[in-house]
Design goal:
The protein is of the alpha/beta class. It is about 30% helix and about 20% strand. Strand 6 and strand 7 form a beta hairpin. Bound molecules: iron/sulfur cluster (SF4) (2 copies). One iron/sulfur cluster binds next to helix 5.
């Protein structure tokens, strides 16, 4: 899932200069799970903004809308008729889809989108994938050395770890220590002998914005368009 965290209220207030009609948009998918932008957080932010408006005489009209998935335009019909400023508590993808679908709205980011990861514990989320576009988890015991090693090393540890912790911080496990221990437990230390060649980073963000095409779905769409034309 995509991980995000709430922006401080003071930062949002700074973005709202000149606003009158404000809609707070929650998303029931990723940002709801990471407790940054679901229905509950959207209501809380609306209440905080309404209170601020009342105390400061701003005259804001604040509404709240929560959709299933802000990143899919099919779910955005509840936004029809919204005017003014929209604070998006969806991830950066959702915020951009909403802005493209509703050009008359001024969309503000209400969260900082940080990474792709999973819950590690209550309210704690760990980055697990950097979206490199060429997965090598089969060689690394299902632990991503790109996202989880501070140096994104592909062929073993740097030598700086201490007691299983990364040299960048005692709070961060050394991903390569985890990989080696996990391979050892499975009797697959032989995988460490494989030399992982330098990655071709063109499949990652380094190659520019990526477009992923599902050929089957894409062909189906094309046939549908032809049928409609014919
Ligand atoms: S190897 Fe690439 S695709 Fe696989 S988990 Fe790591 S960053 Fe993600
Ligand atoms: S200590 Fe481990 S996780 Fe940290 S940079 Fe070195 S190999 Fe990577």
């Amino acid at each position: 899932m995509i991980i995000a965290e709430r922006k401080p209220l003071s930062e949002l207030l700074g973005m709202l200069e000149g606003a009158k009609d404000i809609t707070v948009l929650g998303c029931r998918s990723c940002t709801a799970i990471c407790l940054a932008g679901g229905e509950k957080e959207a209501k809380e932010l609306s209440e905080a903004l309404s209170l601020h408006s009342e105390l400061q005489g701003k005259g804001w009209r604040v509404a709240t809308i929560t959709v299933e998935r802000a990143c899919e335009k099919e779910f955005l019909s509840p936004l029809e008729g919204s005017v003014g400023t929209l604070i998006s508590l969806a991830c950066g993808v959702g915020a951009q889809v909403v802005q493209a679908m509703c050009p008359e709205l001024h969309v503000l980011p209400g969260v900082n989108t940080t990474s792709m990861g999973a819950p590690e514990g209550m309210g704690v989320f760990l980055e697990q994938c950097a979206g490199c576009g060429d997965c090598i988890l089969h060689l690394t015991a299902g632990i991503c050395p790109i996202a989880r090693c501070a140096k994104s090393l592909l062929n073993g540890p740097c030598g700086g770890s201490q007691d299983g912790r990364c040299e960048i911080s005692p709070d961060t496990p050394c991903a390569w220590e985890q990989i080696v221990r996990s391979l050892e437990a499975r009797g697959r230390l032989d995988l460490l002998e494989a030399n992982i060649p330098p990655k071709d980073w063109r499949s990652s963000r380094s190659g520019g914005p990526r477009r992923t095409v599902n050929a089957e779905a894409s062909a189906g769409e094309q046939q549908k368009a032809w049928r409609e034309e014919g």
